[in-house]
Design a protein that fits this description.
heterodimer, A: 30 helices, globular, B: mainly alpha, Recoverin, domain 1, 2 domains, two-stranded antiparallel ribbon, 10 helices, 55% helix
């Protein structure tokens, strides 16, 4: 033992020398070493934790007396990690590679070589999981390595147990090493010690069976982990626009970035919706359906042919655009098309329903995830402390942003101080209440006014349509869309002004603002829908009571017209052979679905245009004006009016949400809507990123992003629910047009399901479905769902209450102290 | 680590060696480090650097440098960040955040825009809120307790590499 110690001592100084000598020592008596290990390890452990510098040398030296030279006391201890490991497992080639990886993982503090540097980065980035894994591998490896040693002496039970204990301690130490606030050097040295110890004695315990198998397993695990690491890196690199968003985040703070993250998420959803509609509806029809011009419904009528290719008509989505896969009316109602027997109507129906279902699912899932994250941050018991310690955003690297951050922190402190002071004083309740009531009244007036305006405008456009659109100029034709967009632009500012009457806390004022804007948009949208429905009903009122008659009449007219080509008499029961008539000349029935789809598409396009133009004019031109005219203007443009614009987060988010609502509403009638939206979001992302970086200044009051995320999701869910109502209503109660679309000829659109069940599924399936759709079965099911919702709600309430109780207890305990 | 070494090197190319096999004893003075773009705007940059520095004066060797960035990175666990955050805010390094420390923190955060009575008010409130053992200053336990409940702590201490 004495000799061991001495040799160990000298080994501290010079690693290189110990290489050779240690090799010899490897065969020294394990038992005595173990004895030392037991006693001193425990000691060494505790000591290491308390004392940084001193023990570092003593500890490893003690260990080294039993083990290989490890210059833990030295700074460049990495340099001998490799040889150390190699020595330990001389026989095993693979374990040599393992060593290098080991080194890599533990991390070179002072990057000795490229390997180590990479390793350190990895160890910093990948976390203790890898280290723990590494340790397991080491153990297995060491199982094979220390075979030679363990075979030499029999081990007693007691010693075994104690050894196990120590090994466990070491393992725990390794696992928790990350958390300790020690210097890197110390961590590395302790880590190495612990690792070697574990290796050595784990092997002794395990008796190292199946050397080759372990080695193989070790190699596979290593390869697998490397693969996982690479895959993670690849995944991170694949996230679209990540660098752009990070850049914005560093300049403008996390709140503005959250808008772009939201935008990106929406883009993902729209991509999937696009995939569904494109792949399952548009492509089959384009490839396998009857080509353009073969059927009356697929051809531009003769009357419109002259203008069909004009840009104006195309921009308006009539003409060729109307009679294409983009809209509902093009699709034929054949049950199956093409050689694949693709069931077009069924697919159309299911895609429509499926996209809505998918949207519901994903929004709810994201909400649940956000709720989990938000979870426990609800109490305001540490208000000031948090403001002081957590309000500085360490991500900021830009002086301008930093300035604004300072200002916003100051403002937030002042706000909190004012609140604190206010809570200690009384105010004139009556005056405030009166003002608030007045403000709400004004807001309601504005909302009602805008609703009526839209209604009026839609009515007017109906009149224009009846009289023929060619008589009117651009304004009349696009009146509805422009009015809606203008309202969307000006009313929020009006609400802003009104809210200054209310004298609320800014956060509450913001919520009111968002709520009012939300109501505004909602009101607009619904008035729009109702006006549209009115229009449809107007036509339907003509048609519905006379539908069959009408059909007969039209068909009769058609046969008459056909017969007229014969120049013969008019047969009563026309069984004349079909004449080859150009489909463009056939008289056509009305098609309200395509009309609705067109309206939605036009609205989306005009919304997109308005947004872009607003950005260009409102932000860019304004910035240019302020920057260049500042020199020759009387007052300082940059600080006074108009100054640079800020990025309006809430407005943009709401715009995004409502846009999505329109897409959901319209995609059943116009399969091209998701595609248009994908294009819109894509360009919008680039345009807005550029505009933000170029023309906007960071906000003065930096908006807290964490809590409002769920608020936006909740609104999205609400909008989704609302936008599916019209589509569902039309599917269930309005008969489809008889002359266009995949459901023509049926009395209700959902009949396509029953038709499929009859024809394509075995008969017992239909019976089962028949039983299942029995009201007697559905009502109890609904009842069950309601009960379970109630139950879950009750449990969650009780949990919250228990939570509150505990918090109160904590507070009282604190006060006691 | 490669990148970190690159950055470290950039700051003082004549002093920092590319090759660490001989383990040279190289330390960069605080002035150079606080001029790094990530730290430049940070009001606590001197404190950050000093709390990672071995000799307490703010010079960082490469080990300390890596240490600092590893704690500030996204992968460091919360407890570790809390420990270092405590060190950063403890200006007089007495292992307690006393009222004077709080005042200094507040001044750095708001660039001295608050009036004296506002500052006192805020500091009093902080101590009132977070001090559990009633000694008039924040020990590490108090700090940890308060930070662990904060929703934003982790997010604002992230660092992109």
């Amino acid at each position: 033992d004495g000799s061991d110690d001495i040799e160990g001592g000298s080994a501290v100084e010079n690693e290189e020398n110990t290489k050779e000598t240690d090799k010899g020592k490897k065969q020294a008596t394990p038992r005595t070493r173990r004895g030392h290990a037991r006693g001193r390890d425990r000691h060494g452990d505790e000591d290491d934790e308390d004392d940084e510098g001193g023990m570092r040398r003593a500890g490893p030296r003690r260990h080294r007396s039993r083990r290989r030279g490890r210059a833990a006391g030295n700074e460049a201890s990495d340099s001998d990690m490799e040889p150390v490991k190699a020595r330990k497992n001389q026989a095993n080639q693979k374990s040599k590679e393992d060593d290098e990886e080991d080194e890599d993982e533990k991390g070179g503090k002072s990057g000795k070589g490229k390997n180590e540097k990479k390793g350190d980065k990895k160890s910093d980035k990948k976390g203790k999981k890898e280290k723990a894994n590494k340790k397991k591998k080491d153990k297995k490896k060491s199982g094979s390595g220390s075979d030679s040693e363990s075979e030499e002496e029999p081990i007693t039970e007691e010693e075994l147990a104690k050894l196990k204990e120590e090994v466990e301690e070491k393992k725990k130490l390794i696992a928790t090493l990350r958390n300790k606030p020690w210097k890197m050097k110390k961590k590395l040295s302790v880590l190495k010690e612990a690792q070697l110890f574990v290796e050595k004695f784990e092997g002794a315990l395990g008796k190292g069976k199946g050397k080759k198998f372990y080695a193989y397993k070790v190699m596979m695990t290593k390869k697998w982990m490397k693969f996982q690491r690479d895959f993670e890196n690849f995944k991170t690199a694949c996230i679209p626009w990540e660098m752009k968003i990070k850049e914005i985040e560093s300049h403008f703070g996390s709140s503005v970035a959250s808008y772009f993250i939201f935008l990106r998420w929406m883009y993902g959803i729209n991509m999937i919706l696009f995939g569904l509609t494109f792949g399952l509806v548009m492509v089959p029809e384009a490839l396998m359906g009857k080509p353009y011009g073969s059927l009356p419904r697929k051809t531009v009528p003769r009357a419109e042919e002259a203008t069909a290719m004009n840009f104006a008509t195309l921009w308006d989505f009539s003409g060729f655009a109307q009679y294409s896969v983009l809209f509902y009316g093009y699709y034929n109602n054949q049950r199956t098309i093409g050689w694949l027997k693709f069931r077009m109507p069924l697919s159309y129906f299911l895609v429509g329903v499926g996209s809505i279902g998918y949207s519901f699912m994903i929004v709810t899932r994201t909400m649940a995830k956000n709720a989990n994250d938000d979870g426990g941050g609800d109490d305001t018991s540490f208000n000031f402390s948090w403001k002081m310690f957590t309000s500085w955003d360490y991500l900021i690297g830009n002086p301008e942003t930093a300035d604004n951050k300072f200002a916003s922190i100051t403002t937030s402190f002042k706000e909190a101080i004012v609140e604190e002071q206010e809570s200690r004083k009384e105010e004139n309740i009556h005056l405030t209440r009166f003002l608030r009531v007045l403000a709400n009244f004004l807001a309601l007036c504005t909302l009602a006014g805008s609703g009526y305006l839209i209604f009026f405008v839609v009515r007017r456009s109906q009149q224009f349509a009846l009289e023929g659109l060619e008589n009117y100029g651009w304004w009349e034709r696009n009146e509805v869309n422009t009015v809606m967009s203008l309202l969307g632009m000006f009313c929020p500012t009006l609400f802003d002004v009104i809210s200054s009457l209310e004298n609320y806390h800014p956060r509450i004022a913001l919520r009111w603002q968002l709520g009012r804007i939300f109501a505004l948009f909602l009101g607009n949208l619904y008035t729009f829908i109702i006006a549209l429905m009115d229009e449809i009903n107007l036509k339907a009122r003509y048609f519905l009571p006379f539908t069959l008659e009408e059909e007969k009449i039209v068909k009769y007219n058609m046969t008459i017209w056909e017969a007229s080509l014969y120049n013969g008499t008019i047969p009563e029961n026309s069984t004349a052979p079909p004449i080859q008539v150009d489909p463009a000349d056939v008289p056509r029935g009305p098609c309200w679905e395509t009309m609705v789809g067109q309206e939605f598409v036009r609205l989306t396009v005009s919304d997109m245009m308005t947004t872009y133009i607003t950005i260009l004019i409102g932000d860019f031109l304004r910035a240019v004006f302020v920057r260049f005219f500042n020199y020759c203007w009387c007052w300082d443009l940059e600080y006074g009016f108009p100054s640079y614009s800020e990025f309006d987060i809430s407005g943009n988010v709401l715009g995004l949400i409502f846009n999505q609502g329109m897409i959901w509403m319209g995609s059943f009638y116009a399969p091209c809507l998701p595609a248009i939206n994908v294009f819109r979001l894509h360009t919008s992302m680039y345009l807005q990123c550029w505009a933000v970086m170029c023309c906007n200044v960071p906000q003065e009051r930096v908006f807290k992003a964490s809590r409002s995320n769920n608020f936006y999701m909740a609104m999205l869910l609400f909008i989704l629910f609302l936008s599916t109502l019209p589509a569902v209503y039309t599917i269930v109660s309005i008969p489809p047009s008889f002359d266009c679309g995949p459901f023509s000829g049926k009395t209700r659109m959902f009949e396509v399901i029953s038709e499929t069940l009859e024809h394509d599924f075995p008969s017992w399936f239909g019976k089962v479905f028949g039983y299942a759709s029995n009201p007697g079965l559905i009502l109890p099911f609904i009842l069950l769902m309601v009960l379970s919702i109630y139950y879950l709600n009750a449990t969650s309430k009780s949990y919250k209450e228990a939570n509150l109780e505990l918090k109160k207890k904590l507070q009282s305990v604190r006060i006691e102290n | 680590v490669y990148r970190l070494h690159g950055r470290y090197y950039e700051m003082a190319p004549n002093v920092v060696p590319m090759d660490y096999t001989k383990d040279p004893d190289v330390k960069l003075p605080m002035q150079l480090i606080i001029n790094m773009p990530e730290l430049k705007e940070n009001p606590f940059k001197e404190r950050i650097v000093s709390s990672f520095s071995e000799d307490g004066e703010g010079s960082l060797s490469f080990n300390d440098f890596v240490d600092m960035f590893s704690v500030l990175s996204e992968m460091a666990p919360r407890e570790l960040k809390a420990i270092y955050a405590f060190k950063i805010y403890d200006f007089n390094t007495d292992n307690f955040i006393c009222k004077a420390d709080l005042e200094k923190t507040l001044n750095k955060l708001t660039r001295e825009e608050l009036t004296a009575e506002e500052i006192t008010l805020v500091c009093e409130k902080v101590i009132e809120e977070a001090d559990m053992d009633g000694d008039g200053k924040l020990g590490f336990a108090d700090f940890e307790n308060m930070i662990s409940k904060a929703p934003d702590f982790l997010r604002y201490y992230f660092k992109k590499n």
